[in-house]
């Protein structure tokens, strides 16, 4: 018998499932740089999402940033959904094959990825099991962000990104600043609650 989600989580999950695409996620055969990220939602008394702090590496535009697990597409992946699953396993030691995939959002472009940019496709997964991340070499830390707290406005702020001399909306949670593409993707998730 399949366990039911908590009503608050169920509302979000079903709203997302109705809005997201489950079609073919194979990228076209061109030279564009692509990546995929996993938006992992967990059942709790209220929904929460898994985030990580990226390792600090020279030349990485997201070095030390808070992000969703994910990374670059490899031809051996076959499709971007597999990229999100593989990267989550590599970065946080989590297997997403047993979770429910709700679908994907339209691809987004990062404003901080430099010339040529990169196209990033977010895939949303839902789990009833409390997944315990184990950080690999690409992640310094992992944590769960309560979405009701994020939507409440209690975490709201701005982040000034020195490399672009620009200010972005952000959340600050337990000392972690969540901004940029990660915040944009999570705003799409939260829009399903409205």
How are the elements arranged and paired?
Blueprint: H1 7-19, E1 34-42, E2 48-54, E3 66-67, E4 70-72, H2 80-92, E5 100-104, E6 108-109, E7 119-127, E8 139-146, H3 147-152, E9 156-161, E10 166-173, E11 176-179, H4 180-191
Walk me through what this model shows.
- With 194 residues, this protein is α+β, with helices and mostly antiparallel strands.
- The chain has four helices and eleven strands.
- It has helices at residues 7-19, 80-92, 147-152, 180-191; strands at residues 34-42, 48-54, 66-67, 70-72, 100-104, 108-109, 119-127, 139-146, 156-161, 166-173, 176-179.
- Strands 1, 2, 3, 4, 5, 6, 7 and 8 form an eight-stranded mixed sheet that branches.
- A hairpin with a 2-residue loop joins strand 10 (166-173) and strand 11.
- It is globular and about 45 Å long.
- Mean pLDDT is 88; it is low at 1-7.
Specify Rg, calculated over alpha carbons: 16 Å
Q: What's the helical proportion of residues?
A: 10-25%
The averaged pLDDT comes out at 88
The rounded distance between the terminal residues' Cα atoms is 30 Å
Tally of DSSP helical segments: 4
Short description:
The protein is of the alpha+beta class. Helix content is 23%, strand content 32%. The strands form two sheets. Strands 1, 2, 3, 4, 5, 6, 7 and 8 form an eight-stranded mixed β-sheet that branches.
């Amino acid at each position: 018998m399949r366990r039911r989600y908590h009503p608050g989580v169920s509302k979000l999950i079903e709203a997302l499932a109705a809005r997201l695409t489950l079609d073919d996620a194979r990228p076209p055969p061109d030279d564009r740089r692509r990546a995929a990220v996993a938006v992992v939602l967990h059942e709790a008394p209220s929904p929460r999402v898994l985030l990580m702090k990226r390792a600090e590496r020279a030349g990485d535009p997201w070095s030390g940033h808070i992000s969703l697990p994910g990374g670059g597409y490899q031809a051996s992946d076959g499709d971007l959904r597999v990229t999100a699953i593989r990267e989550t396993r590599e970065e946080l030691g989590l297997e997403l094959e047993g979770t429910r995939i709700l679908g994907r959002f339209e691809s987004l472009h990062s404003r901080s990825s430099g010339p040529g940019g990169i196209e990033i496709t977010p895939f949303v997964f839902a789990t009833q099991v409390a997944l315990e991340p184990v950080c690999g070499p690409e992640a310094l830390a992992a944590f769960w962000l309560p979405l009701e707290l994020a939507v409440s406005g209690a975490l709201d702020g701005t982040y000034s990104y020195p490399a672009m001399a620009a200010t972005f909306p952000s959340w600050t949670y337990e000392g972690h600043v969540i901004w940029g593409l990660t915040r944009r993707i999570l705003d799409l998730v939260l829009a399903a609650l409205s």
